[in-house]
Amino acid sequence: MRTGSWRPSWAAPGTQRPCMRRGRAPEAMAAAARALGGCGRPALRAGWGWGWGGRRRLWAPSGGSAAAVASPPAGSSSGSGALSPFDRRLKRKQKNWAAVQAEPAKCDYLREEVGGRIADRVFDITRTFPLALDLGSGRGYIARHLTKETVEKLIQVDIAENALKNAVQSEIPMVSVVADEEYLPFKEDTFDLVVSSLSLHWVNDLPRAFREIHQVLKPDGVFIGAMFGGDTLYELRCSLQLAELEREGGFSPHVSPFTAVSDLGHLLSRAGFNTLTVDTDEIQVNYPGLFEIMEDLQGMGESNCCWNRKPLLHRETMLAAAAIYQEMYGNSDGSVPATFQIYYMIGWKFHESQAKPAQRGSATVSFGDLAKIDGLLSRGKK
Q1: Phi first, then psi: what are they for 240, rounded to 5°?
Q2: What is the rounded CA–CA span in Å between residue 191 and residue 176?
Q3: 31-88: per-residue pLDDT in tens?
Q4: Beta carbons within 10 angstroms of residue 147's beta carbon
Q5: Pairwise CA distance, residues 302 & 299, whole Å
């Protein structure tokens, strides 16, 4: 288990890398946003639709470290439209580009932190998992925090082959598989544990992805995941919208849509998970300015890949957005905050050995008797 306090490599005094802290943005910022155009903290919901048809379950886990490749089902389509808001091919290119940069680790601070928190939730379960799946693993942000005493073997899956090739080594035996999160090429009842960190917010069909995860889990297996929430980058979204309205007379989406936390429990339950836990947290990162935020988002492979994205932002609009960002949300030291809302979710696949709720009407004590407890306790003391 991880011990000690977490400190990113760029957090040394005098460095110009962003400074991360947890907690909500000041209420004054939200009030200023409402006063200057109604840009509060919107919780946008993605329109999750149905993507490719058919299934493919041909790959069975085996030893070795070479990467296996699983392609989408024949006849599949990834065209644009309301049912497929994201361009998955573009997202693959973005992640592959980010993974081969000279210093890919300098933009991994957020993924490393969330990966560590996912690992902490794995450690909270007092058992050893013989075979685990890391869905959307990237460069192994969860695996580097796990131990072989907790996970005996790990399968890493990502759509970006360069990210898997440049994955950080771990003491756990690993196999890399290039595959889409929506079309897992694994047999049913294969894994004891499935983890996913900051990947599922880019899938076109989140209900299907949850069903795929549930299907590859063994009975009494557990899914532990994290994804970005609706308040993520609300400062950037509002600044760009106001700048475009001022300079161009209208605005286009520059931050991808996110699901709402109120929907996650329903989607997990509909996929077949039980004993659900869903919680939310916020990580706030301070940057020198708007352009540094966008540079790091590109380095994370988190650039916008919506089909309806605007291909070009004019220079004047960008400069206006940077000025608005600083004016509305800037800190006293000249930096600007960027908020990342994280949804954490835990769901179990049903097994007969799991605890079950008592049958209706089987209680032997009435809630009305609770008011008599104080009287009974006082009598006992006498």
Answers
A1: -65, -40
A2: 15
A3: 434 444 444 443 333 333 323 233 333 333 333 444 455 545 544 444 544 467 788 8
A4: 15
A5: 7
Contacts of 204 (CB under 8 A, 6+ apart): 48, 49, 51, 78, 83, 84, 85, 86, 88, 182
Distances (CA, A) of 315 to 167, 261, 284, 310, 319: 36, 35, 27, 14, 6
Which residue's structure tokens are 């919680």? 279
Tell me the C-alpha distance between 372 and 60, whole Å.
60
pTM of the model: 0.73
- How many other C-beta atoms lie within 10 A of the C-beta of residue 149? 11
Answer yes or no: are the C-beta atoms of 232 and 340 closer than 8 Å: yes
3-state secondary structure of 104: helix
How far CA 335 is from CA of 287, 332, 364, in Å, comes to 5, 7, 60
Please tell me the distance from the alpha carbon of residue 283 to that of residue 25, in angstroms, as a whole number.
10
CB 200 within 8 A of CB 181: yes
**Amino acid sitting at position 98:** A
Contact predicate 151/172, CB 8 Å:
yes
3-state SS assignment for residue 297: helix
The answer for residues whose C-beta is within 8 angstroms of residue 266's C-beta and 6 or more apart is: none
Tokens of 55: 């299934």
Q: What are phi and psi of 239, to 5 degrees?
A: -65, -45
One DSSP character per residue, 33-63 reads HHHTTS---------------S----B---S
Count CB-CB contacts under 10 A for residue 207. 18
pLDDT digits (tens, 9 = 90+) for 267-283: 999 999 998 999 999 99
The CB density around residue 169, as the number of other CB atoms within 10 Å, is 10
- Write out residues in the chain with pLDDT < 70, as ranges: 1-83, 250-257, 308, 311, 376, 379-382
* Dihedral sign of CA atoms 11, 13, 15, 18 in order: positive
Amino acid at 248: E
- CB count within 10 Å of CB 57 equals 16
Q: In angstroms, rounded to a whole number, what is the distance separating the alpha carbons of residues 382 and 378?
A: 7
